[in-house]
Amino acid sequence: MKSKHISDALEGIDFDMVEDAGQPFYPHKNRGTLLRWAVIAACLALILGSLGIMLSLMQKGDTPIPSITENTEALEENQSSDIGASAPTPPAETIPAESLPAESLPEDDHTLWVDERPRNDKQGATGENAIEWPWHCLEIWEQYVYIQYEGVTYRMGSASVNGNIIGLSPQTIGEKLADGEAYGYEYSTASDREPVKRTVKCEVYTIKGIPEDRYIAIKYSNHEGYFKMFADAYNPPATLGELISQLDLTNNCILDTVNDYSKQQFESFGLTKESSDTLWSMFLKYADTAVQAESAAQWSKKRISFSLTSEALGIYNLSWSLRENGWLVTNVEGYGYYYYLGPDEAAEIMAYTLAHKTELQKETTYHLVGVVTEIGEDYIKIDDSIMMENPEDGIVFTVYAGNTNIKKYLACGYLSVGREVMVSHKGIYTNEPTVVRTATVLHEVWIGDSGEVWIPE
Predict the structure, then answer these.
(1) C-alpha gyration radius of the chain
(2) Please, are residues 448 and 120 in contact by the beta-carbon 8 Å criterion?
(3) Model-level pTM?
(4) Which of 45, 211, 318, 414 could be bridged to 308 by S-S, CB 3.0 to 4.6 A?
């Protein structure tokens, strides 16, 4: 595994050709190797998108950091980030929360501590450690990703965020179609071994309002939750109206998050539900617009990209991108679909969008960087002394593994005492000033002598 500093990693990247880093986009060619490319695309999207974010490593700060680029029309989630603000210093007389009985802790106190310790860090970046997890470390929805139904191959279509799957809401599940058998392939690290096909029983359902020749839902035996599977073939809706109606996008997706690349200064903003409804009506004016080949679509740096997230469809942060030159491009079904509306038509929609923008509410993500000192069944302890100007100011934090990503590290032995890590989380509460219960993802990192955070590739 090699490593690059963030400034080096950004050199040589043609940002104009990298769009909306987020969920992967699958071109319709090379279908036989689609799964392999899906994995590669996901990794590239995460690495490119996240390496494009320069995180403030100052003691305080909640300034939202926008994504820099787009990646094949898939929108990156932009959120403010503050490495170090996650590490509050308890006053000298404070008893560590982990030593207090649970009943003495106020359950509703979600006030966040603020870290005011002098730090030694310079800059950093979030990324994704590209680990090929062995079969036994994978979640069931990562293992059994295919199913054959009525002669059609479907594959896992539910999105995941930081290792957590976005399942379908039970309210979206229709009638049961059949009992089935999902399957996947266990790959060995040995080059001379063929992959082993594994199967598991499941139930097959319709998704309300969605044609079953495009999407179905499955429920694994002895496992909670429903997951979206989509037909593993490039079969674009013939018209824009067909795409919108087949997925019931006007009801399933609210266009409430926008990345604006139409001006020199990048901007991310929100929209109201009312504005979203109006925009869907404007797009439906061009319902008869026919889908076009990817080769026909012309690139335009000036564009606005709407984020598509829907529990009903099991999608997260996909893109509905309108280019100034009139091209509408979306990866709402994983593949790229291209529709030509025309420059005047695009200008009308973009003007309405910009005229009705609202402030985008973002959650602040904090980052705890340090050295692992202890590993338990459901927690790790991290000492952040290495990030302090005065190492004696360091604190040992207990981080609980509430996320699939962190649980994998613990369960599969991929983490060891002495490793340098960064844990992203949603904040540390005043009633537990040395405990992190809101961790979202763990990264293995290398920490430079001057406090620089390096991301292994």
Answers:
(1) 23
(2) no
(3) 0.65
(4) 318
